[in-house]
Specification:
The chain has eleven helices and 16 strands. By secondary structure, it is α/β, with parallel strands linked by helices. It has two domains: about 80 residues, no CATH class; about 280 residues, Metallo-beta-lactamase, Chain A. A seven-stranded mixed β-sheet has the order 8-7-6-5-4-3-16, with helices on one face. The structure holds zinc ion (2 copies).
């Protein structure tokens, strides 16, 4: 069981590291998934079940995984029967970048706490990927329930899904406005989007669709580093990162009753990620493969050096941030196999990590 830690691909489980005393299991059976997540913290010696839900698991693999979880459940429920403790899941909705890769939707992550979803970024495809997660049993990701988003920066690949997040849930009967947190410029972007879809708004409200008059609106908060949000589920702290020539770019830390989660956003290696994580449960960090063909050009070398993080740099960050689980996301593969990037990270970091897939749960 200990050596099961790995990443599920359509070809099977690819181990990503082999720490002693740590294990991980993977399944895509929503009811069992929920049960296993609740059950495992009951056992002191078990750190946590990492949950991964790739899109194309074979049925036979599912059977294997379910049986593994049943064993875990029996071990874990020895002391069970107290109240259900709050629990937090990270659902990676999109791991992509500007490349139009159909298997990697635009960057977006959901932190789901007590059936409430908090999104980070809204790349293209965000609402449909959320709907796919809903189908897998995460009810908080139903379109109508998408009400809060934290935007790291205004690069188009992170915000092309913003109009989608504003309008699609409204069309599907969300009456609450969206609340959006992000850098300077978010308010202007929001105003422009509302103006761009003005006719649509009028037709839907005043025509036969009888749409509500509130759900398309956005409450915008242009933020500074520090605590930017707090409710009964979560405290969200923004921290500044270094993303080339962007005047502002943020990472976010989520603290809930049972987990701490740090999301780097897009950044060159930066100390603020180390400080924000500091032994956190999950660190999601961007990374690029420096072997790409376009990296032969000086301006791209300079671009990636100042805007993004290489595997070697990530290894250094992660060693000092010491997350319990490192999740690679927003991977820039540069047409190299994903395993090549994974291997480079493995060479510079001996801790536990996975390379995220769309709809991966951690
Ligand atoms: Zn960016
Ligand atoms: Zn990006």
């Amino acid at each position: 069981m200990r050596n099961r830690l790995g990443m599920i691909t359509p070809n099977g489980i690819v181990p990503v590291s082999r720490p002693s005393g740590t294990w991980s299991h993977f399944l895509n059976f929503p009811a069992l998934k929920r049960w296993a997540t609740i059950a495992t913290p009951l056992r002191g010696s078990v750190r946590r079940t990492e949950l991964h839900t790739p899109m194309k698991l074979s049925k036979s693999l599912n059977v294997t995984l379910v049986s593994v979880v049943l064993v875990v459940g029996i071990r874990a429920t020895g002391q069970a029967s107290g109240p259900v403790t709050p629990h937090t899941q990270v659902v990676v909705l999109g791991t992509g970048n500007p490349n139009a890769d159909p298997d990697r939707s635009g960057p977006a992550v959901a932190v789901v706490v007590n059936d409430t979803a908090y999104l980070v970024d809204c790349g293209p495809g965000v609402v449909r990927r959320a709907a796919a997660a809903e189908k897998l049993g995460i009810k908080a990701l139903a379109a109508k329930q998408l009400k809060t988003v934290f935007i790291t920066h205004l690069h188009s690949d992170h915000t092309l899904g913003y109009p989608d997040l504003i309008f699609t849930p409204w069309v599907l009967d969300r009456a609450d406005p969206l609340t959006a947190y992000g850098p300077r410029g978010l308010r202007a972007m929001t105003d422009h989007i509302e103006k761009a879809w003005k006719k649509d708004i009028q037709v839907r409200i005043h025509g036969l669709e009888q749409a509500n008059q509130t759900g398309y609106k956005v409450v915008v908060h242009e933020i500074a580093p520090g605590v930017v949000y707090r409710d009964a589920n979560v405290t969200v702290t923004a921290f500044a990162v270094k993303h080339g020539t962007w005047d502002q770019a943020f990472g976010y830390r989520f603290d809930t009753a049972d987990r701490s989660i740090v999301i780097s956003g897009d950044t060159a290696p930066v100390e603020s990620v180390v400080d924000a994580c500091h032994g956190c449960d999950v660190l999601l960090h961007e990374v690029y493969n420096p072997k790409g063909e376009e990296m032969k050009e000086a301006h791209w070398q300079q671009y990636f050096k100042t805007f993004h993080t290489s595997p070697e740099e990530l290894g250094d960050i992660a060693r000092r941030a010491h997350p319990k689980l490192l999740v690679l996301y927003h991977q820039v593969l540069h047409k190299q196999p994903e395993e090549d990037l994974v291997e480079q990270v493995r060479r510079s970091y001996s801790g536990t990590f996975v390379s995220a897939k769309d709809l991966g749960m951690y």
